[in-house]
Amino acid sequence: MNTRLILQTILSAVALAISIAVGISMISKYRPQNLEEKLDRAVVPLNSDRIVGGKLVVANEFPFAAVLKIDVGSSRYTCGGTIISEKFIVTAAHCMYATARGIKPSELEIGVGNPDLTLAGWVKAKKILVHPDYNGLLITNDIALIELNEPLSFNDTINRAQIDLSLMKKGSEMTVIGWGVTSNESKTSSKVLEKTDLYVQDPAKCAPVRKDFNSNDLDIVCISNTENHKDTCYGDSGGPALSAVPSGNTGPPNSKVKYNLVGITSYGDSTQKVVDSKGRPECGSDGATGFYTRVGFFLKFIAANTKLTVEYLVANTTSSGIPLSDKFSPQQSALTIDN
């Protein structure tokens, strides 16, 4: 074999290695340092909402699910999020406030593409966009957007969810997902995504817990299933509450349903004030109620700050949904947190 042929062979091998590396760069380039240690030590915060009574999800069942790993000095915690476009994730505003100043994008790592966090791809944030009227004491306008540093490439494992504008009926089933703790005794968040089923509640049942609550079709929707001791739990904050419709050809491969985004896990409380060993409200206890930010109510806020059209964002724009003119919160510019 002459020298030129040897050189060509070497160059071809190098090119092949580069192409393979590029193909897996989604996982390797953004894989956090000491990932396993971070996952083991991701203790959920006291004010993070709470999956208990759940079961493991299957691959590609929720390709829009994102996990947020926040690391601010000695404060490490987990939240969830939902992919709504190649560049944006929606989550809870309170997840962005480990400190009074709010977390910086550089303090946030986002896992996508696999329900098992040890196999997920990790991406970086460019900006954090918090609703300007978010109030952490009253827990209102609990919604934020994360702009990614680089756009995602949609495929079977990574895709977006669309926003459900349907009116909420008492007893409607919702699916919630998250990487939070799986029992009231757990001290660390889960490394695998879980799901459970909850139900939209009568506002009258929720009012004793949240005094100003009177409708599931405004900024908050009340969802629970404490009769079966199922609930979101600590570390699930920011993740989605989802409605399901027959998929046709629009859902994940081999899926019989398409999930649409109804709510964002915000917080839970109970009239009976049952607490765990740390003094926190127990998840799934008798009398417990979960409150979820109603994403459709904030459609104008999302559209204005992502530059995405309503037609792109929503799953249904018919008259059966929330009337576009009289229920949406006004268009507002977000409070931007940069590095």
Automatic annotation (TrEMBL):
Instruction: Say which domain of life the source belongs to.
Output: Eukaryota
Entry annotated with the keyword Disulfide bond? yes
What lineage is on file?
A: Eukaryota, Fungi, Fungi incertae sedis, Zoopagomycota, Kickxellomycotina
Gene3D superfamilies in the cross-refs: Trypsin-like serine proteases (2.40.10.10)
Q: InterPro entries recorded for this chain?
A: Peptidase_S1_PA, Peptidase_S1_PA_chymotrypsin, Peptidase_S1A, Trypsin_dom, TRYPSIN_HIS
| Organism for this UniProt entry | Smittium mucronatum
Is Lyase among the key words of this record?
no
Limits of the Peptidase S1 domain:
51-307
A Gene Ontology BP annotation from the UniProt entry = proteolysis
What this protein is called in its record is: Mite allergen Der p 3
Q: Select a single GO molecular function from the record's annotations and give it.
A: serine-type endopeptidase activity
Annotated keywords: Disulfide bond
